[in-house]
Amino acid sequence: MLDFLNNIRRAEKKIPLTRQAINTAAAALLGIALGTLSKFLDTVPVNNLPALLQYLDVTNFLGRFAIWVFIAVCISIYSSSSVRAAINVFLFFAGMVLSYYLYSSFIAGFFPKSYAMIWIGFTVVSPLLAFICWYAKGQGRISLILSAGIIAVLFNMSFVYGIGYFNSLSFLEALTFLCGCAVMKRQSVADTVIMIAIGVALAFVLDIVIPFSF
How many structural domains compose the chain? Predict the structure, then answer.
């Protein structure tokens, strides 16, 4: 545990407050932009979208959790500290959810309350999750377990499987999972393989405990 805490102290970056504020503002603006884009694509008839977007099923992809969790993980682990990770991820989701449902209410003309409550709830707990997630970039067993946990969540958000079948929700979800593995990679190939193996095993356990898709 002491080695883990020492690694974390070394990992914290001393960044000027101005730079931290810019990074936080960028996270919020990214959330606003992606939330607006997601709702815009959701209101456009599928056959009016470019052929590539239709083929990749981008609209439904943005309506599921994998890509948003992946972006939040990236924001978290590349933040300068665990506290900044919590702030940055919260503002990212707040911007995304606010812009999405303002667009939905005032431009699209409807407000899906039950669906909105899921995202609001996710936004509320996101600072705690981001705070914990930040520690996955350290060294040692605790960080390895945290990294494996992130891989497990992304795995279950990207693939559907059971006895005799296995498939990805879409090409983009499979790509998101692979990008997640790349972002969470450890210092050595062997440790990265161990992380992914533990993550996949943990994913199967989580699928039993939480047997529904995001």
Answer: 1
User: How much is the mean pLDDT over the chain?
Assistant: 88
Residue 121 lies in a domain: yes
The residues facing 161 across adjacent strands are 166
Range of the domain at 139: 2-209
The structure's pTM equals 0.88
Q: How many residues does the chain have?
A: 214
Q: Is 188 a member of any domain?
A: yes
Helices assigned H by DSSP within the chain: 2-11, 17-43, 51-56, 58-62, 66-77, 82-103, 113-134, 141-158, 171-183, 189-209
Over pLDDT 90: what percentage of the chain?
Answer: 57
* Contacts of residue 182, Cβ cutoff 8 Å, sequence gap at least 6: none
DSSP letters spanning 81-116: SHHHHHHHHHHHHHHHHHHHHHHIIIII----HHHH
Q: What is the pLDDT of residues 7-52, one digit of tens each?
A: 554 455 677 788 888 999 999 999 999 999 998 998 888 888 888 8
